[in-house]
């Protein structure tokens, strides 16, 4: 088991437990993909202790789109 702070990966941090639990291992086990959160992390990056490289601007756009999507689905 590998444990890293959730706050290192903003999209995972903002995701629900159900969204975080829905993931796929792709690329012959090199990538973890969360389709509901549009997040991909490399296993090598996690092992190296690399945090997300997402810019604040990109995260803001993602959060806005996520909010709009939730509003239209209700």
Characterization of this structure:
The protein has helices at 10-14, 17-21, 43-47, 56-73, and strands at residues 24-26, 31-34, 39-42. By secondary structure, the chain is an alpha+beta fold. It contains 4 helices and 3 strands. The chain is globular and about 35 Å long.
**Between the first and last Cα atoms, what is the distance in angstroms?**
37 Å
pLDDT averaged residue by residue: 94
Query: How many strands in all?
Result: 3
CATH architecture: 2-Layer Sandwich
How would you classify the helix and strand content by structural class? alpha+beta
Report the CATH topology name: NE0471 N-terminal domain-like
Strand residue content:
5-15%
Instruction: Please tell me the total number of domains.
Output: 1
Give a quick rundown of the structure:
Helices cover 45% and strands 15% of the residues. The protein is of the alpha+beta class.
Keywords:
74 residues; alpha+beta; NE0471 N-terminal domain-like; 4 helices; 3 strands; globular
């Amino acid at each position: 088991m590998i444990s890293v702070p959730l706050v290192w990966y903003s999209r995972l941090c903002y995701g629900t437990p159900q969204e975080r639990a829905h993931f796929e291992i792709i690329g012959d086990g090199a990538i973890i993909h969360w389709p509901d959160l549009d997040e991909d992390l490399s296993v090598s990056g996690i092992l190296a202790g690399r945090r997300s490289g997402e810019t604040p601007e990109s995260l803001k756009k993602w959060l806005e789109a996520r909010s709009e999507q939730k509003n239209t689905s209700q």
